[in-house]
TrEMBL record:
SMART domains on file: Tryp_SPc
Gene this protein is translated from: LOC108070799
Superkingdom of source: Eukaryota
Parts forming coiled coils: none
Residue span(s) of domain Peptidase S1: 39-274
Signal peptide: 1-22
Name this polypeptide is given: Chymotrypsin-2 isoform X2
Family: Belongs to the peptidase S1 family.
Length: 305
């Protein structure tokens, strides 16, 4: 048997590592054909491209099986900060206790077994937008993790905001989550994606009482709808982070959907993450990730104390 060329394999592995670093959390432009319809009534495609930026927000303790404690999604915006919806982390006027919240990353399947030390972190600080009105306005929050996520793991990368999102009406965008497959149904095991069309704000104002001018209005491109468990997830338009799933909605297909505008809150997000001084978190505006999800009522009991 011919002896393998050690130098060749060393060079090959080195090149692979360089390519992985070159794609460090960068979302590139993707054609409409890349996207598949997901979330309620959807299915999966090209999982790795997006799932490495999205995290599952859970209670520390599960109910019966690992993964059934998922309640929201989130986007990693630095090695130690996650962006999500404020209503995921609050109950009426109370903010949940950080030590009751776990963030799981690197798994596009919700029910996957995972290493608690390598694939998850506990929250050590929560920052809810100071002007948040439950299910109405400023539905944003940031979770600081108790430890950094290592940068060498290609399956877990902060999302990069390298350009301004194009939120022109009639453009196609993408959202995702582990939410219910239908109203009051089971949560999806795999992360699901949904193609949506940017709509006129007037469309949402007719259907959503709490829609405001700085929100983003969308409707499903063909079928599907966001459900419980999807809240806090991202809206990605032409490779850039545009918004976050917010408010409260049912699972009826064809309804208009509301997203909090990411560009509108860019300054607050940057300032908040940079204020996490003790944790050494720094945020540049070309490195941003997003989170999402919806907290189910029975899970609040586990988080409030």
């Amino acid at each position: 048997m011919k002896r393998p060329n050690i130098h060749f394999w060393f060079l090959w592995l080195t090149l692979l590592r360089l390519f992985a670093r070159a794609d460090h959390g960068v979302i590139t432009d993707v054609s409409d054909e890349t996207f598949e319809f997901l979330i309620s009534g959807g299915h999966t495609h090209n999982i790795f491209r997006w799932s490495r930026h999205v995290v599952s927000i859970r209670t520390v303790s599960y109910l019966k099986n690992p993964g059934d404690n998922h309640f929201c999604a989130g986007i990693l915006i630095s090695s130690r900060a996650v962006l999500t919806a404020a209503h995921c982390l609050t109950e009426y006027k109370a903010t949940l206790k950080p030590r009751g919240i776990q963030v799981v990353f690197g798994h596009f399947k919700r029910l996957d077994s995972y290493n608690v030390h390598d694939d998850s972190r506990i929250a050590d600080r929560l920052m809810v937008h100071p002007d948040y009105e439950r299910y109405k306005k400023n539905d944003l929050a940031i979770i600081r993790l108790n430890k950094r996520i290592p940068s060498y793991n290609p399956e877990v990368q902060p999302i990069a905001l390298r350009k301004k999102a194009n939120v022109t009406v009639n453009n196609t965008c993408l959202t995702m989550g582990w939410g219910q497959l239908y109203q009051h149904g089971p949560y999806s095991d795999e992360i699901l994606y949904l193609n949506v069309i940017l709509s006129s704000p007037s469309d949402c104002k007719r259907e959503i009482d709490s829609f405001y001018e700085d929100d983003i209005c969308v409707h499903p491109k063909t079928k599907g709808q966001m459900c419980a468990g999807d809240m806090g997830g991202p809206l990605i338009c032409q490779g850039a982070l545009a918004g976050i799933i917010a408010g409260t909605m049912g699972c009826s297909e064809g309804r208009s959907m509301k997203f909090v505008s990411f560009p509108h809150y860019r300054d607050w997000i940057q300032k908040t993450v940079n204020d996490f001084k003790n944790g050494g978190v720094t945020l540049t505006m070309d490195m941003l990730m997003l989170c999402g999800g919806w907290l189910v009522s029975q899970l609040y009991q586990l988080l409030l104390y």
